């Protein structure tokens, strides 16, 4: 006999909201919930583990596509851990690239702020720069 959790109990156990659980179910990341005679969604321990993996992976910034791949690897008892590691390494590299891009954005914004007097005069170097087609950021 399977111990079933309601969507509220699954949400509490996984740290996801009921809305998020329904979303991941609709996206096909988690198989459709069993339904009680009254039509309530019920989740088994396997589904709760899937939902926990999804929450943890989302926290780490994995995309839904990457999470789908992680779930497939998790469900495959013949998987090679090197495949999981390769997916994580690709994701980490994408994060590093995004950090580099964000650092450049911060540098550009700092320069724009430095050019602005920030007084009561309507002239603004930030707006002038943002509307100048010759100025590329």
Automatic annotation (TrEMBL):
Note the InterPro entries from the entry: CueR, DNA-bd_dom_put_sf, MerR-type_HTH_dom, MerR_fam, Tscrpt_reg_MerR_DNA-bd
Q: Which UniProt keywords apply?
A: Coiled coil, Cytoplasm, DNA-binding, Transcription, Transcription regulation
Ranges of residues in domain HTH merR-type? 1-73
Entry coiled-coil feature ranges: 85-115
Question: A Pfam family in this protein?
Answer: MerR-DNA-bind
What domain of life is recorded for the organism? Bacteria
* Subcellular location field: Cytoplasm
Q: Does the keyword Coiled coil apply?
A: yes
What protein name applies here?
Answer: Cu(I)-responsive transcriptional regulator
Tell me the organism: Fluctibacter halophilus
